[in-house]
């Protein structure tokens, strides 16, 4: 087998691991999703799985990256409507919400494997939400009397806070609360 074939197989196996891990974490939650269970599900030993990822933290950071790729499909044309779709979907996958919450706190430590992921993720989200809010102000669908960059940061904080509340009390309607926030930004003429 050529090294190119081995490389392609390695990429395919890594992607399979991430897809399975995404399902396992979504179903069982961060704390109950074990490396052994994920390895068994893809036909590898734990050592074989860790050939593709240096640690459990690296694996779970990659799972969050994969989740973001999947979620990107929910943000087709309208980033604000897409954000609502993602938050609504998150209520169906509490294990991934738990993983995100756990790793985001741990990643505050600059030496944590997920630190760069979260730093870049928040930067990317602030940039895209700021652009979406600005565009909606320009087209008149949102009021013009708020700062898009500051509001983008606040929306991200609200979303993360709603996820924490949801984890503590699953009756919290994350999407409904976020929709209320976005509705408060709407132009009365829209």
UniProtKB/TrEMBL annotation:
<protein>
    <submittedName>
        <fullName>Transcriptional regulator</fullName>
    </submittedName>
</protein>
<keyword id="KW-0805">Transcription regulation</keyword>
<dbReference type="GO" id="GO:0003677">
    <property type="term" value="F:DNA binding"/>
</dbReference>
<dbReference type="Pfam" id="PF13977">
    <property type="entry name" value="TetR_C_6"/>
</dbReference>
<dbReference type="InterPro" id="IPR036271">
    <property type="entry name" value="Tet_transcr_reg_TetR-rel_C_sf"/>
</dbReference>
<keyword id="KW-0238">DNA-binding</keyword>
<feature type="domain" description="HTH tetR-type">
    <location>
        <begin position="11"/>
        <end position="71"/>
    </location>
</feature>
<dbReference type="InterPro" id="IPR009057">
    <property type="entry name" value="Homeodomain-like_sf"/>
</dbReference>
<dbReference type="InterPro" id="IPR039538">
    <property type="entry name" value="BetI_C"/>
</dbReference>
<dbReference type="Pfam" id="PF00440">
    <property type="entry name" value="TetR_N"/>
</dbReference>
<keyword id="KW-0678">Repressor</keyword>
<keyword id="KW-0804">Transcription</keyword>
<feature type="DNA-binding region" description="H-T-H motif">
    <location>
        <begin position="34"/>
        <end position="53"/>
    </location>
</feature>
<dbReference type="InterPro" id="IPR001647">
    <property type="entry name" value="HTH_TetR"/>
</dbReference>
């Amino acid at each position: 087998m050529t090294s190119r074939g081995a490389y392609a197989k390695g990429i395919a196996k890594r992607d399979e691991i991430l897809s399975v891990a995404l399902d396992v974490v979504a179903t069982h939650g961060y704390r109950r999703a074990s490396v052994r269970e994920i390895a068994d599900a893809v036909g590898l030993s734990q050592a074989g799985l860790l050939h593709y990822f240096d640690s459990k933290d690296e694996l779970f950071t990659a799972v969050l990256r994969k989740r973001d790729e999947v979620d990107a499909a929910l943000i087709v044309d309208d980033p604000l409507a897409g954000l609502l779709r993602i938050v609504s979907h998150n209520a169906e996958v509490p294990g991934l919400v738990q993983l995100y919450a756990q790793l985001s706190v741990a990643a505050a430590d600059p030496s944590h494997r997920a630190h760069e992921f979260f730093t870049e993720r928040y930067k990317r989200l602030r940039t895209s939400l700021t652009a979406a809010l600005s565009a909606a102000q320009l087209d008149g669908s949102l009021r013009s009397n708020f700062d898009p960059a500051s509001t983008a940061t606040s929306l991200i904080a609200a979303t993360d806070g709603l996820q924490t509340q949801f984890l503590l009390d699953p009756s919290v309607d994350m999407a409904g609360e976020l929709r209320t926030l976005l509705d408060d930004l709407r132009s009365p003429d829209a």
